[in-house]
Specification:
1 helix, Porin, mainly beta, eleven-stranded mixed β-barrel
Length: 212
């Protein structure tokens, strides 16, 4: 537990320090999430979460999200999700949007190695204008024997359907730590690069999950 406190302190300190290190084409952000999971039966589960994302001017965006997951087999879980978005524009005002996700999660475990591929179709609606994005996210995780921490790495690419071009890419590294009871704490660093603009984001993320 002492080791976990040290890790969280380093992440927290780095986040606070990084918020002052902005340039014209680079910024540092902090993403936080609280999530609840509920299994209805062996195949159907529900998720609800609240997200807060902070940037150079404080709270950049926040949104609740809910999802329905159906486990078709041990390796395939499709899902649908809805997100109500409030994010800040260049004028400093918060604008409302709705986002819908159609996901397919493909999973495979080999001993302690977990491989995952998430395919997502994303539709965002703002002011009666819709935009579509296809996202592809492969990831690798490893369950280390004897400790509660499971490290993982992943990448994700975004394809803008309307423009017909790749929009951005993300690379992430982090870990999941099993707390007492049905609780999990996750932390990660994400490097995001836009391909249509010269812009980079350094993102530190903390999330807490509770299973009902």
């Amino acid at each position: 537990m002492k080791q976990m406190k040290r890790i969280l302190f380093v992440v927290f300190f780095t986040t606070l320090s990084g918020t002052f290190l902005f340039s014209q084409n680079s910024e540092t952000m902090l993403w936080t999430k609280a999530r609840v999971k509920k299994e209805i039966n062996k195949k159907i589960s529900l998720r609800g979460e609240m997200n807060f994302r902070f940037g150079r001017d404080g709270l950049y965006t926040f949104f609740p999200q809910t999802g329905l997951f159906y486990k078709v087999s041990n390796w395939l879980t499709p899902s649908v999700e809805y997100r109500f978005l409030l994010d800040k524009n260049k004028s400093g005002n918060y604008k409302m949007a709705h986002r819908f996700h159609l996901n397919a999660n493909i999973e495979q475990e080999i001993n302690r190695l977990a491989m995952d591929l998430r395919l997502r179709y994303q539709y965002k609606l703002r002011n009666s204008k819709g935009t579509s994005t296809i996202r592809i996210k492969p990831s690798l995780g490893y369950n280390i024997k004897g400790i509660k921490l499971s490290p993982f790495v992943y990448s994700e690419v975004f394809f803008d359907v309307e423009k017909g071009e790749w929009e951005k890419v993300r690379y992430g590294v982090g870990g999941k730590y099993n707390l007492k009871g049905p609780n999990v704490l996750s932390f990660r660093y994400i490097y995001e690069s836009r391909l249509d603009k010269i812009r980079v984001r350094h993102i530190w993320s903390l999330s807490f999950t509770h299973r009902l």
